[in-house]
UniProtKB/TrEMBL annotation:
Residues 125-263 form the N-acetyltransferase domain. CDD domains: NAT_SF. It comes from Streptomyces halstedii. This is GNAT family N-acetyltransferase. Pfam families: Acetyltransf_1. SUPFAM superfamilies: Acyl-CoA N-acyltransferases (Nat).
C-alpha cells in the first residue's frame, strides 16, 4: 500500500464523494465543504473540506454550517478535521467559532488481503450477527458497558440501518454465557474500495483476551468476501495499537470538533 496515494483515494471516495450513512439522511456539497444532514439522532456534520481553502473562506464556511444546522434545530453537529486539511489554522478557526475539540483519533487503513481472517475467540465466547431489535439491545448494552456512554443514539442508527439499508451494514455482538461483552459495526460503501470499522469496544473484564481482534478478523473476512480492497478505522488510543499490530497503517489523524447549542 502506498500511503499518500491511499490517503488521496480515501479523501476522494470517502469524503469528497461521501454517501449517506443511513436512511433519512442526505449528503450535499455546500461550497467548499461536504456535509451530512439528518435528524437529531443521526450523525450530522462536515466530512470534507476543499484543498487549498484560505482562512477567510474557512471562516465563511464555518459560519454557514453553524447557520445551516442551527436553523434545523439540531442540538449538535461535528466537523471532522483531518490533519492534512486546509487551512493549517482550521482547528483554531473552529475553536474561535465555538466548537470544542474532542480527543484526536488516528486514521488507519489496511489492505484486506493482508489481514488475518481466522476468528479465534476465547473459550465460552461466541459472535452473533445483529439482525433484529433484540440483537440491537444486546449490542447497545455491550457498547454502554465498554464506553460508559448512553447508547440511545446508537440504537436509533442501527435499527434504521437494519430496516432500511441492511446490505451495506454489518453489526456484531460477542456473547459470553449469554451476556454481551463486546460489539462492533462495519460500514460497506458500494462503488468504492473501502469498508469502515466502527464502534469496536469490549467490556473491561474481557479486554486483553482477543475478543477485539476476533471482531476485526471476522469483519475482514466479510469485506474480502464482498470484494472490498481496504478496511478503514478512526481509532482511539486504546484500539490504534491493536490495529497497528494487525497490519493497519496510519495515514492521518482526525479531530472531531463539536458544535453544541444545548448543554
Amino acid at each position: 500500500m502506498r500511503p499518500l496515494e491511499t490517503l488521496a483515494l480515501f479523501d476522494r471516495e470517502m469524503r469528497e464523494h461521501a454517501r449517506p450513512d443511513g436512511p433519512g439522511v442526505r449528503v450535499d456539497r455546500a461550497g467548499p465543504v461536504v456535509r451530512q444532514t439528518g435528524g437529531a439522532d443521526d450523525w450530522n456534520g462536515v466530512v470534507w473540506t476543499a484543498p487549498g481553502l484560505s482562512p477567510a473562506a474557512a471562516r465563511a464556511a464555518i459560519t454557514a454550517q453553524i447557520e445551516h444546522y442551527t436553523a434545523l434545530g439540531l442540538g449538535e453537529f461535528e466537523w471532522k478535521r483531518y490533519a492534512h486539511d486546509d487551512p493549517a489554522s482550521l482547528g483554531e478557526l473552529l475553536t474561535a467559532a465555538g466548537f470544542g475539540a474532542e480527543p484526536p483519533e488516528t486514521l488507519l487503513v489496511a489492505l484486506v488481503a493482508d489481514l488475518a481472517t481466522d476468528v479465534r475467540l476465547p473459550e465460552g465466547v461466541r459472535l452473533q450477527t445483529v439482525t433484529d431489535a433484540a440483537g440491537v439491545d444486546l449490542m447497545v448494552r455491550a457498547h454502554e458497558s465498554a464506553f460508559g456512554t448512553d447508547g440511545s443514539r446508537l440504537r436509533h442508527q442501527v435499527l434504521a440501518r437494519l430496516a432500511g439499508d441492511p446490505g451495506t451494514f454489518v453489526a456484531l455482538v460477542a456473547l459470553a454465557d449469554g451476556e454481551p461483552v463486546s460489539s462492533a459495526r462495519m460500514e460497506l460503501h458500494p462503488g468504492t474500495g473501502f469498508a469502515g470499522l466502527w464502534g469496536g469496544g469490549t467490556v473491561e473484564r474481557w479486554r486483553g483476551r482477543g475478543v477485539y481482534r476476533a471482531l476485526v478478523a471476522h469483519r475482514a473476512a466479510l469485506a474480502a468476501e464482498r470484494g472490498y480492497r481496504y478496511l478503514q478505522a478512526d481509532a482511539t488510543d486504546r484500539s490504534a495499537p491493536i490495529l497497528r499490530r494487525l497490519g493497519f497503517s496510519a495515514l492521518s489523524t482526525v479531530t472531531p470538533y463539536m458544535y453544541r447549542t444545548t448543554p
